[in-house]
Amino acid sequence: MNMQVDTRSLMTVTDTTPCHDALALTEGGNLARIVLQDQVYSLRITRAGKLILTK
Q1: Domain range summary for the chain, segments of one domain joined by +
Q2: N or C: which end of the chain has fewer CB within 10 A?
Q3: Which CATH code is given to the segment(s) 21-55?
Q4: What tens digit of pLDDT does each residue of 6-21 get?
């Protein structure tokens, strides 16, 4: 997958919402685990370049 996004262009000066690159979260792969209050979720990048978050 060669998707490149300039995350700086996604944020405005007044926007303080955290922005994370999905490829950085998956370390260049297509799967990452995310933990929220003892629950583990899977973030997957599909072949079509879409994100799926599952419990």
Answers
A1: 21-55
A2: C
A3: 2.10.70
A4: 666 666 667 899 999 9
